[in-house]
Hints:
The chain is α/β, with parallel strands linked by helices. Helices cover 45% and strands 8% of the residues. The longest helix is centred in the C-terminal third of the chain and has 23 residues, at 388-410.
Amino acid sequence: MRSSSFATLLFPALLSALAAACSSNVAGTDDAAGEAETDTDPVRARLGEAFLMEHSVAEIVPHVLTEIKGSQPGGIVFWNMHHGSGADLRKVIDSYSRASQAAHGRAMLFSTDYEGGALDTTTSFTRVPGIQRFTDGMTPLAHPRWLGVAFHKSAEEGRELARLHGKIIAREMRSIGINYPLGTVSDLAFALFVNRSTDQDEAVASTLMTELIDGATSVDGVVFVTKHFPGLGQTRGDTHDQIVVSPVTDEPTADKHLAPFKAVIDHTNAAGERAMRLSILCSHAEFPVFDATTNTTVSRPILQGVLRERMGFKGLAVSDAMWMGPYGTMSTSQVVRLYVKSFVAGMDLLMIPGARFDAALTYFRAVYDGKLTGAERTALEQDVGKPWAEIQPAFKARLAESQARMDRVRQGLPFAHDMMDAAGVAPDTTTETERARYDQILDDTDPRWRTRH
């Protein structure tokens, strides 16, 4: 399916919400945010790295270039609302990456949703668009649930198929400069994830996700993001609309949904340097079995206690989009306080609308410098649930920790423009051998998977 029809079919309400929440997805008008770095405090100078800035189109936006040259964000995530091609996106990333190198000498993260499913035939032979933001010039992949079907027919071929799925994603993303794809989910295949996930059985899903991420991280220069920790498969409802609450009340059941995340964390940790090539996107849902007071995005017991301490995760923790559910209806002054709360709780990257980047950066600077008014401090204390005397040092410590983590990721991350293939090479020609085998395994599983448009 070509991108011109794919994006239209993919969650029309979501696309409308993105347009409203992100506007043009460029930053606002606060001149301070776009100034070149002259800060002698190395942590303060890099406050922009706390944000993964949303960018709605595969087109160069001059104000974004200004932001990159001034207070470089940690990365940019592209939504492709104008149905651009992979070649279009490559030009944008090339420009932005060169600007970041010239201004700061630090590689940026470039991201887009890329789970698979542009070939929209489901395992029950209905037609449901999958999550591949860019399809023009890229390989249309099967819904991830087909990986589970293949595994149940032949475990050996199912594992191979999963590795190929991950490798094709990473290889083609790399060819256009995407080094931080929001890839296939580790949620179990229930509710909203019946097609987007690999399987309902936690042992099968763990095996397949381990193979998939092994394939993806075998491609140099790519950090693979899996989602939606600690497992949205156990929830009902859609976090795009509201904060949903897991009905699970016992830890053994919740642990089943954690199992694929634990498997991929253990596997990448065992691979040494690949530990930093795995990133985990955390949901906005509430999981009372782990934290009875708040949702994952701002929960220290989940982000620090479960993800870091219990599961041993070493990579970058990134939030889901901070316009979803109630975040989209909050005023800027409200939501920037929750950005601080989330960061203090343990998030490394906050995925925020581009239109809020300047305001968020200005507020982070004010917190860092202790320049909030009395009323602003009181409001932040109420939202974070801690006194100011604890908030500021915790905030500074988390910034230093997160920036050190980002630096470890960058050790194996070339500038995006340097890792692209030679000009004129279409992304889908970089994976011809892998794609032929991918198709063969799925043909052996069930030839009806091949429906194309």
